[in-house]
Amino acid sequence: MSKGKTSISKASSYQETAEFWSEHDLADFWDKTEPAEFDVEIESEKRYYPLECELSHEVNKIAHKRGISIETLLNLWVKDKINELNKSLNLTKK
């Protein structure tokens, strides 16, 4: 939790904040809110594909040893394989 910032809940932990908002309605405190502005960066769309359990364990070990996320490792491998196949099939991006 950020120190020195005021809060409607006056909570000192995320747990206390969650408990407060589980028992209260924001509509009851609307006059105490302030407008907020922020930027949202939308990254690429994510899709999920099933992976055999044994393969998943192996990928997890390799990613851990490399110090990267499983998602990053799989994306690198798939990109490499696509590039390799595109070269061998003389395919180019359009």
Q: How many helices?
A: 3
The total number of structural domains is 2
What is the helical fraction, as a range of percent?
40-55%
Low-confidence stretches: none
- For the CA atoms, what is the radius of gyration? 23 Å
- Class based on secondary structure composition and strand pairing: mainly alpha
What is the total tally of β strands?
A: 0
Q: Shape from CA axes?
A: elongated
Helix/strand order, N-terminal first: HHH
State the distance separating the first and last CA atoms: 48 Å
Mean pLDDT: 88
Strand percentage: under 5%
Quaternary structure of the protein: single chain
> How is the biggest beta sheet arranged?
none
Record the SSE blueprint:
Layout: H1 14-23, H2 53-66, H3 70-88
Helix pairs in contact: 2-3
Overview of the structural elements:
- Helices cover 46% and strands 0% of the residues.
- It has 94 residues and is mainly alpha-helical.
- It has two domains: 1-31, no CATH class; 53-88.
- The chain starts with 13 loop residues before the first helix and ends in a 6-residue tail after the last helix.
Keywords for this structure?
94 residues, mainly alpha, 3 helices, 46% helix
Tell me briefly what this model is:
The chain is an all-alpha fold and 94 residues long.
